[in-house]
Amino acid sequence: MSELWDRAKQLAKEAGIAVSDAGKAVADSTAEVTDQAAAAAGAAWDATKETASAAADGAAKLTDGAARAATEAADKTAAVASDAVKATKAATAETVEAAKKGLA
Predict the structure, then answer these.
(1) Residue 82 domain-assigned (yes or no)
(2) For the chain, what is the domain count?
(3) Does the predicted model carry a pTM greater than 0.70?
(4) pLDDT per residue over 38-58, tens digit each?
């Protein structure tokens, strides 16, 4: 009977070791998966920040381009308006001179 009891204790001890080893394996796997998930989340966050930064840079470049185009258009409009004022003054001066000659 004592042999049977010793064998039962040995089997229980081995079962306990097996359960402990399995628990350690599960804990190690969980830690590894957690580390991988954290690394993936970090990479995703970095990619998100890079994408947002690139989008902001692109928007800034587009805004700068639009501002330059608007400035160029305003400069051209001012030049055309200035030329029109000069042409109007010249035409007015000619009309005044012609009127003076006609009155004289």
Answers:
(1) no
(2) 1
(3) no
(4) 899 989 999 999 999 999 988
